[in-house]
Amino acid sequence: MVGFCFLFGMLFIVFMLFFCMQKIQKILYFVFFYLYSKIKKRSFFFKQNSFFIFKRLSQLWLVQTCTLFFSVLFWVFIFRSFFFEPFHIPSGSMMPTLLAGDFILVNKFSYNIKNPITKKIIINVSVPKRGDVVVFKNPLNPKLYYVKRIVGLPGDKVKYDVYKKQLTIRYNYVYKDKKYSKIFPMFYSDIIPSDFIKIFCSNDTNNFINIPCDSMLESNFPSIRLMQCKEYMGDIFHYIFIIPGYQDFCHMYYKQPGTLSAEWIVPNGKYFMMGDNRDNSSDSRYFGFVPKENLVGKVSMIWLSFDKQNKNFPFYVRFKRIGLVF
Question: What is the pTM of this model?
Answer without folding.
Answer: 0.75
